Amino acid sequence: LILLEELGFGLDLMSCAATGTTIGLSHVSPKTGRAVSRGAAEPYLNRLLRLPGFLIGEGEAEVDAVRDAFVLTGHFLDMHVWGPRQLDPPAVRESLIEAVSLH
Q1: How many structural domains is the chain composed of?
Q2: Whole-angstrom Cα distance, residue 24 to residue 103?
Q3: For residue 76, which of 3, 11, 42, 83 sits 20 to 30 Å off, Cα-Cα?
């Protein structure tokens, strides 16, 4: 998240893009990078990225949540950094994701 922020593509995970609430944030819009609450996300679950609670100070950084964090950050890195430059994600990133998934 810090890398995205430093590159000028920070995500807005403070409040729901649809309702403004700061409670129950569960997803992120893949287009805007803004958080979406559980209720507002319900009709669009197949189009949204999961927001791991540990990224906003809720919940533990368990394996599934860490994997979701990699998917989330990978989407925006691909959209703003790798894709426009026709680059592949670094191999070391994929190795790290695999290592985390083994635990």
Answers
A1: 1
A2: 27
A3: 42
Q: What is the DSSP string of 56-92?
A: GT-S---HHHHHHHHHHHHHHHIIIIITTTT-PPPHH
One pLDDT digit (tens) per residue for the chain, 103 residues: 999 999 999 999 999 999 999 999 999 999 999 999 999 999 999 999 999 999 999 989 999 999 999 999 999 999 999 999 999 999 999 999 999 888 7
One-letter amino acid for residue 58 of the chain = E
Distance spanning both ends of the chain, measured CA to CA: 23
97, exposed or middle or buried, with CB in 10 Å at 0-12, 13-18, 19+?
A: middle
Domain enclosing residue 40, as ranges: 2-101
Strand order across the 25-28 sheet: 35-37, 25-28, 49-50
